[in-house]
Design a protein that fits this description.
Layout: E1 10-16, E2 23-24, H1 29-35, H2 41-44, E3 49-50, H3 53-72, E4 76-78, E5 89-90, E6 95-96, E7 108-111, E8 114-117, H4 133-141, E9 145-148, E10 181-184, E11 187-191, H5 198-208, E12 214-218, E13 231-235, E14 238-242, E15 259-263, E16 289-292, E17 295-299, H6 303-311, E18 315-319, H7 324-327, E19 335-341
Parallel strand pairs: 1-4, 8-9, 11-12, 14-15, 17-18
Antiparallel strand pairs: 1-19, 2-3, 5-6, 7-8, 10-11, 13-14, 16-17
Length: 356
Protein backbone atom coordinates (compact mmCIF):
# COMPACT_ATOMS: atom_id res chain seq x y z
CA UNK A 1 0.00 0.00 0.00
CA UNK A 2 0.96 3.66 -0.30
CA UNK A 3 3.48 4.53 2.41
CA UNK A 4 5.60 7.65 2.01
CA UNK A 5 6.57 10.19 4.67
CA UNK A 6 9.45 12.25 3.26
CA UNK A 7 11.62 12.62 0.16
CA UNK A 8 14.70 10.67 1.26
CA UNK A 9 13.79 7.26 2.71
CA UNK A 10 14.76 4.41 0.37
CA UNK A 11 12.47 4.55 -2.65
CA UNK A 12 10.59 1.33 -3.38
CA UNK A 13 7.74 2.30 -5.68
CA UNK A 14 6.95 5.40 -7.72
CA UNK A 15 5.27 6.90 -10.76
CA UNK A 16 7.22 8.38 -13.66
CA UNK A 17 5.32 10.76 -15.95
CA UNK A 18 4.67 10.49 -19.66
CA UNK A 19 4.77 13.03 -22.47
CA UNK A 20 2.67 11.17 -25.02
CA UNK A 21 0.27 14.05 -25.55
CA UNK A 22 1.06 17.58 -24.38
CA UNK A 23 -1.14 20.54 -25.31
CA UNK A 24 -0.47 24.05 -24.22
CA UNK A 25 -3.33 25.09 -21.94
CA UNK A 26 -5.66 27.85 -23.18
CA UNK A 27 -3.98 31.13 -22.28
CA UNK A 28 -6.40 32.23 -19.56
CA UNK A 29 -5.78 33.97 -16.22
CA UNK A 30 -5.05 30.68 -14.47
CA UNK A 31 -2.23 29.84 -16.90
CA UNK A 32 -0.79 33.36 -16.73
CA UNK A 33 -0.87 33.18 -12.95
CA UNK A 34 0.69 29.73 -12.68
CA UNK A 35 3.21 29.65 -15.53
CA UNK A 36 3.78 33.09 -17.02
CA UNK A 37 3.17 35.71 -14.33
CA UNK A 38 6.50 37.37 -15.13
CA UNK A 39 5.78 37.75 -18.84
CA UNK A 40 3.93 40.38 -20.81
CA UNK A 41 0.75 38.69 -22.13
CA UNK A 42 1.83 39.57 -25.69
CA UNK A 43 4.95 37.41 -25.28
CA UNK A 44 2.93 34.25 -24.64
CA UNK A 45 -0.42 34.83 -26.34
CA UNK A 46 0.50 32.64 -29.32
CA UNK A 47 1.37 29.58 -27.22
CA UNK A 48 -1.34 27.07 -28.03
CA UNK A 49 -2.05 23.65 -29.47
CA UNK A 50 -0.12 20.41 -29.30
CA UNK A 51 3.60 20.53 -28.64
CA UNK A 52 5.80 19.52 -31.62
CA UNK A 53 6.26 15.76 -31.86
CA UNK A 54 10.07 15.98 -31.65
CA UNK A 55 9.81 17.60 -28.21
CA UNK A 56 7.43 14.88 -27.02
CA UNK A 57 9.67 12.15 -28.43
CA UNK A 58 12.76 13.50 -26.67
CA UNK A 59 10.85 14.06 -23.43
CA UNK A 60 9.52 10.50 -23.50
CA UNK A 61 12.98 9.15 -24.24
CA UNK A 62 14.30 10.92 -21.12
CA UNK A 63 11.36 9.77 -18.99
CA UNK A 64 11.76 6.18 -20.17
CA UNK A 65 15.47 6.31 -19.34
CA UNK A 66 14.63 7.63 -15.86
CA UNK A 67 12.15 4.78 -15.37
CA UNK A 68 14.74 2.23 -16.51
CA UNK A 69 17.37 3.70 -14.18
CA UNK A 70 15.00 3.52 -11.22
CA UNK A 71 14.12 -0.09 -12.05
CA UNK A 72 17.85 -0.90 -12.09
CA UNK A 73 17.98 0.51 -8.55
CA UNK A 74 15.23 -1.93 -7.52
CA UNK A 75 12.31 0.52 -7.70
CA UNK A 76 8.89 -0.59 -8.97
CA UNK A 77 7.81 1.99 -11.56
CA UNK A 78 4.24 2.88 -12.57
CA UNK A 79 3.22 5.19 -15.40
CA UNK A 80 0.09 7.37 -15.72
CA UNK A 81 -2.68 6.10 -17.98
CA UNK A 82 -2.84 8.06 -21.26
CA UNK A 83 -5.80 10.44 -21.38
CA UNK A 84 -7.36 12.64 -24.07
CA UNK A 85 -5.57 15.88 -23.27
CA UNK A 86 -7.22 17.87 -26.05
CA UNK A 87 -10.79 17.03 -24.96
CA UNK A 88 -12.63 20.18 -23.95
CA UNK A 89 -14.38 20.31 -20.57
CA UNK A 90 -16.22 22.99 -18.67
CA UNK A 91 -17.75 24.07 -15.39
CA UNK A 92 -20.63 26.57 -15.10
CA UNK A 93 -17.97 29.31 -14.98
CA UNK A 94 -15.36 28.52 -17.67
CA UNK A 95 -14.09 25.96 -20.19
CA UNK A 96 -10.66 24.53 -20.89
CA UNK A 97 -8.79 21.40 -21.99
CA UNK A 98 -5.96 19.46 -20.36
CA UNK A 99 -2.23 20.08 -20.26
CA UNK A 100 -0.35 16.80 -19.79
CA UNK A 101 0.50 13.81 -17.60
CA UNK A 102 4.17 14.79 -17.35
CA UNK A 103 4.32 15.78 -13.66
CA UNK A 104 2.77 13.17 -11.32
CA UNK A 105 4.21 15.05 -8.32
CA UNK A 106 2.05 18.11 -8.63
CA UNK A 107 -1.47 17.01 -7.76
CA UNK A 108 -1.25 13.92 -5.55
CA UNK A 109 0.03 14.18 -1.97
CA UNK A 110 0.95 10.85 -0.30
CA UNK A 111 1.12 10.92 3.51
CA UNK A 112 1.53 7.61 5.30
CA UNK A 113 -1.44 5.46 4.13
CA UNK A 114 -3.38 8.51 2.92
CA UNK A 115 -3.31 10.22 -0.48
CA UNK A 116 -4.88 13.59 -1.22
CA UNK A 117 -6.05 14.74 -4.67
CA UNK A 118 -5.06 18.41 -4.60
CA UNK A 119 -7.00 21.53 -5.78
CA UNK A 120 -4.83 23.20 -8.44
CA UNK A 121 -5.09 26.88 -9.33
CA UNK A 122 -4.93 25.88 -13.03
CA UNK A 123 -8.21 25.25 -14.82
CA UNK A 124 -6.51 22.96 -17.34
CA UNK A 125 -5.51 20.58 -14.52
CA UNK A 126 -9.02 20.10 -13.13
CA UNK A 127 -9.24 16.45 -14.20
CA UNK A 128 -5.55 15.59 -14.55
CA UNK A 129 -5.55 12.96 -11.80
CA UNK A 130 -7.92 10.81 -13.88
CA UNK A 131 -4.67 9.34 -15.26
CA UNK A 132 -4.12 7.69 -11.85
CA UNK A 133 -7.71 6.68 -11.16
CA UNK A 134 -7.28 2.91 -11.66
CA UNK A 135 -4.22 2.84 -9.42
CA UNK A 136 -5.95 4.87 -6.72
CA UNK A 137 -9.03 2.67 -6.87
CA UNK A 138 -6.87 -0.38 -6.33
CA UNK A 139 -5.09 1.29 -3.42
CA UNK A 140 -8.42 2.21 -1.84
CA UNK A 141 -9.51 -1.42 -2.10
CA UNK A 142 -6.32 -2.36 -0.23
CA UNK A 143 -7.18 0.04 2.59
CA UNK A 144 -5.51 3.32 1.61
CA UNK A 145 -7.45 6.46 2.50
CA UNK A 146 -8.08 8.41 -0.72
CA UNK A 147 -9.62 11.86 -0.41
CA UNK A 148 -10.12 14.82 -2.73
CA UNK A 149 -9.89 18.41 -1.57
CA UNK A 150 -12.89 20.66 -2.38
CA UNK A 151 -12.86 21.59 -6.07
CA UNK A 152 -12.26 25.35 -6.43
CA UNK A 153 -14.39 27.49 -8.76
CA UNK A 154 -11.31 29.26 -10.22
CA UNK A 155 -13.17 32.46 -11.05
CA UNK A 156 -11.44 35.48 -12.57
CA UNK A 157 -11.57 37.16 -9.16
CA UNK A 158 -9.10 34.58 -7.81
CA UNK A 159 -6.22 35.96 -9.89
CA UNK A 160 -4.35 39.22 -9.34
CA UNK A 161 -1.24 40.56 -11.08
CA UNK A 162 -0.78 43.89 -9.31
CA UNK A 163 2.34 42.95 -7.32
CA UNK A 164 4.36 40.00 -8.59
CA UNK A 165 6.41 39.86 -5.38
CA UNK A 166 3.19 38.57 -3.82
CA UNK A 167 1.15 35.50 -4.86
CA UNK A 168 -1.00 36.00 -7.96
CA UNK A 169 -3.93 34.21 -6.32
CA UNK A 170 -6.06 35.69 -3.58
CA UNK A 171 -7.10 33.84 -0.44
CA UNK A 172 -10.66 33.36 -1.71
CA UNK A 173 -10.41 29.60 -2.19
CA UNK A 174 -8.79 26.38 -1.00
CA UNK A 175 -5.83 26.09 -3.38
CA UNK A 176 -2.67 23.99 -3.17
CA UNK A 177 -0.55 21.65 -5.23
CA UNK A 178 1.23 18.73 -3.59
CA UNK A 179 4.51 20.32 -4.71
CA UNK A 180 3.75 23.27 -2.40
CA UNK A 181 4.25 20.96 0.55
CA UNK A 182 7.59 19.77 1.93
CA UNK A 183 7.05 16.47 3.77
CA UNK A 184 9.13 16.06 6.94
CA UNK A 185 7.45 13.19 8.73
CA UNK A 186 4.84 14.65 11.07
CA UNK A 187 5.79 18.20 10.04
CA UNK A 188 4.57 19.63 6.74
CA UNK A 189 5.91 22.93 5.42
CA UNK A 190 3.20 24.63 3.33
CA UNK A 191 4.37 27.23 0.81
CA UNK A 192 2.02 30.18 0.24
CA UNK A 193 2.47 31.10 -3.43
CA UNK A 194 0.80 31.32 -6.85
CA UNK A 195 -0.15 27.65 -6.35
CA UNK A 196 -1.02 27.62 -2.65
CA UNK A 197 -3.38 29.79 -0.58
CA UNK A 198 -3.65 30.20 3.19
CA UNK A 199 -7.12 28.70 2.97
CA UNK A 200 -5.46 25.65 1.43
CA UNK A 201 -3.24 25.33 4.50
CA UNK A 202 -6.28 25.85 6.73
CA UNK A 203 -8.15 22.99 5.03
CA UNK A 204 -5.11 20.71 5.34
CA UNK A 205 -4.93 21.47 9.05
CA UNK A 206 -8.55 20.43 9.54
CA UNK A 207 -7.81 17.09 7.87
CA UNK A 208 -4.28 16.35 9.06
CA UNK A 209 -3.84 17.80 12.53
CA UNK A 210 -6.31 15.26 14.03
CA UNK A 211 -3.99 12.62 12.54
CA UNK A 212 -0.98 14.03 14.41
CA UNK A 213 0.53 16.22 11.67
CA UNK A 214 1.65 19.83 12.09
CA UNK A 215 1.18 22.17 9.12
CA UNK A 216 3.60 25.12 9.12
CA UNK A 217 3.14 28.15 6.86
CA UNK A 218 6.08 29.33 4.74
CA UNK A 219 5.43 32.85 3.48
CA UNK A 220 7.61 35.43 1.81
CA UNK A 221 10.25 33.06 0.46
CA UNK A 222 9.20 32.41 -3.13
CA UNK A 223 5.93 33.80 -4.45
CA UNK A 224 5.73 31.90 -7.75
CA UNK A 225 4.71 28.25 -7.81
CA UNK A 226 6.27 25.14 -6.27
CA UNK A 227 8.81 24.76 -3.48
CA UNK A 228 10.83 21.80 -4.77
CA UNK A 229 13.43 23.93 -6.56
CA UNK A 230 13.79 26.17 -3.51
CA UNK A 231 13.71 23.84 -0.48
CA UNK A 232 15.07 20.31 -1.06
CA UNK A 233 15.51 18.09 2.01
CA UNK A 234 18.23 15.54 1.22
CA UNK A 235 18.01 13.46 4.40
CA UNK A 236 17.18 14.04 8.04
CA UNK A 237 19.29 16.98 9.19
CA UNK A 238 20.48 18.12 5.73
CA UNK A 239 18.66 20.47 3.35
CA UNK A 240 19.55 22.02 -0.01
CA UNK A 241 18.39 25.63 -0.46
CA UNK A 242 18.19 27.71 -3.62
CA UNK A 243 20.80 30.36 -2.81
CA UNK A 244 19.27 32.84 -5.25
CA UNK A 245 16.09 32.94 -3.13
CA UNK A 246 17.25 32.04 0.37
CA UNK A 247 20.26 32.91 2.52
CA UNK A 248 21.57 32.48 6.06
CA UNK A 249 19.27 35.24 7.27
CA UNK A 250 16.21 34.28 5.26
CA UNK A 251 14.99 30.67 5.13
CA UNK A 252 12.15 28.67 6.71
CA UNK A 253 13.30 28.52 10.31
CA UNK A 254 11.93 25.02 10.76
CA UNK A 255 15.38 24.07 9.40
CA UNK A 256 17.28 26.14 11.98
CA UNK A 257 19.12 23.14 13.43
CA UNK A 258 19.75 21.38 10.13
CA UNK A 259 22.92 21.44 8.06
CA UNK A 260 22.24 23.72 5.09
CA UNK A 261 23.62 23.94 1.54
CA UNK A 262 22.94 27.29 -0.14
CA UNK A 263 23.45 26.76 -3.87
CA UNK A 264 22.76 29.01 -6.86
CA UNK A 265 25.38 27.96 -9.43
CA UNK A 266 22.74 26.37 -11.67
CA UNK A 267 23.34 25.67 -15.37
CA UNK A 268 20.42 26.97 -17.44
CA UNK A 269 19.46 24.24 -19.91
CA UNK A 270 17.15 26.66 -21.74
CA UNK A 271 13.71 26.34 -23.28
CA UNK A 272 12.77 25.42 -26.84
CA UNK A 273 9.48 27.34 -26.72
CA UNK A 274 9.26 30.38 -29.04
CA UNK A 275 11.65 33.19 -28.03
CA UNK A 276 12.96 31.08 -25.15
CA UNK A 277 9.77 31.55 -23.15
CA UNK A 278 9.57 29.10 -20.25
CA UNK A 279 6.86 28.17 -17.73
CA UNK A 280 9.53 27.68 -15.05
CA UNK A 281 12.84 29.21 -13.98
CA UNK A 282 16.41 28.01 -14.68
CA UNK A 283 16.43 26.73 -11.09
CA UNK A 284 14.54 23.66 -12.24
CA UNK A 285 18.13 22.36 -12.31
CA UNK A 286 17.88 21.97 -8.52
CA UNK A 287 14.86 19.71 -8.93
CA UNK A 288 16.41 16.37 -7.99
CA UNK A 289 15.11 13.01 -6.79
CA UNK A 290 16.52 11.24 -3.74
CA UNK A 291 16.55 7.48 -4.32
CA UNK A 292 17.81 6.95 -0.77
CA UNK A 293 19.72 9.10 1.75
CA UNK A 294 23.02 8.64 -0.09
CA UNK A 295 21.90 8.57 -3.75
CA UNK A 296 20.29 11.29 -5.87
CA UNK A 297 19.22 11.53 -9.51
CA UNK A 298 20.34 14.92 -10.83
CA UNK A 299 20.33 16.69 -14.19
CA UNK A 300 23.60 15.69 -15.87
CA UNK A 301 24.36 19.34 -16.64
CA UNK A 302 24.52 20.29 -12.95
CA UNK A 303 28.12 19.21 -12.41
CA UNK A 304 28.87 21.62 -9.55
CA UNK A 305 25.70 20.61 -7.73
CA UNK A 306 26.75 16.99 -7.96
CA UNK A 307 30.14 17.95 -6.49
CA UNK A 308 28.44 19.70 -3.59
CA UNK A 309 26.29 16.65 -2.91
CA UNK A 310 29.34 14.40 -3.03
CA UNK A 311 31.01 16.50 -0.34
CA UNK A 312 28.04 15.63 1.89
CA UNK A 313 28.37 11.91 1.19
CA UNK A 314 25.63 11.77 -1.47
CA UNK A 315 26.40 9.96 -4.72
CA UNK A 316 24.48 11.01 -7.80
CA UNK A 317 23.36 9.63 -11.13
CA UNK A 318 23.38 12.24 -13.88
CA UNK A 319 20.56 11.89 -16.41
CA UNK A 320 19.04 13.98 -19.18
CA UNK A 321 15.79 15.86 -18.79
CA UNK A 322 16.16 17.98 -21.91
CA UNK A 323 12.78 19.67 -21.79
CA UNK A 324 12.54 20.35 -18.06
CA UNK A 325 12.22 24.10 -18.74
CA UNK A 326 9.92 23.75 -21.73
CA UNK A 327 7.54 21.37 -19.91
CA UNK A 328 8.07 22.73 -16.38
CA UNK A 329 9.34 19.63 -14.63
CA UNK A 330 12.62 18.18 -13.34
CA UNK A 331 13.28 14.79 -11.74
CA UNK A 332 11.26 15.48 -8.59
CA UNK A 333 8.35 16.89 -10.59
CA UNK A 334 8.11 14.00 -13.05
CA UNK A 335 8.00 11.37 -10.31
CA UNK A 336 5.67 10.54 -7.43
CA UNK A 337 6.98 8.30 -4.70
CA UNK A 338 4.12 6.18 -3.43
CA UNK A 339 6.22 3.83 -1.32
CA UNK A 340 9.42 4.49 0.62
CA UNK A 341 10.94 2.10 3.13
CA UNK A 342 10.51 4.00 6.38
CA UNK A 343 8.13 4.73 9.22
CA UNK A 344 6.30 7.96 10.02
CA UNK A 345 8.62 9.84 12.35
CA UNK A 346 8.66 13.01 14.42
CA UNK A 347 11.91 14.85 13.69
CA UNK A 348 11.35 17.30 16.55
CA UNK A 349 10.67 20.30 14.31
CA UNK A 350 7.43 21.41 15.95
CA UNK A 351 9.17 23.68 18.47
CA UNK A 352 10.54 25.94 15.70
CA UNK A 353 8.32 28.43 13.86
CA UNK A 354 8.46 28.20 10.05
CA UNK A 355 6.86 31.53 9.14
CA UNK A 356 8.97 34.35 7.78
Amino acid sequence: MISSHNDWDTLEECFVGIADDVHHPPMDSSVMSFSYAGYDPNEVKDLKGRYPQWILDEANEDLDNLAKTLEQEGVIVHRPEPTNISAEFSTPDWKSHGWYNYCPRDLLLPLDNLIIDCPSAMRSRYFETMAYRSYLMGQMEEGVKWITAPKPRLLESLYTFEDLTQPTITNDEIIFDAANIVRLGKDLLFQVSNSGSKKGAMWLRTILEPLGYRVHLAEGFYAYTHFDSTVVPLREGLVLFNGARLNENHYPSIFKNWDKIFFDDVVDIGSVLPNGVSPCSPYIGLNLLMVNPILAIVDENQIELRRQLSRKGIDSIGLKMRHARSLSGGFHCVTLDVKRNGELQDYGLHSVSSSS
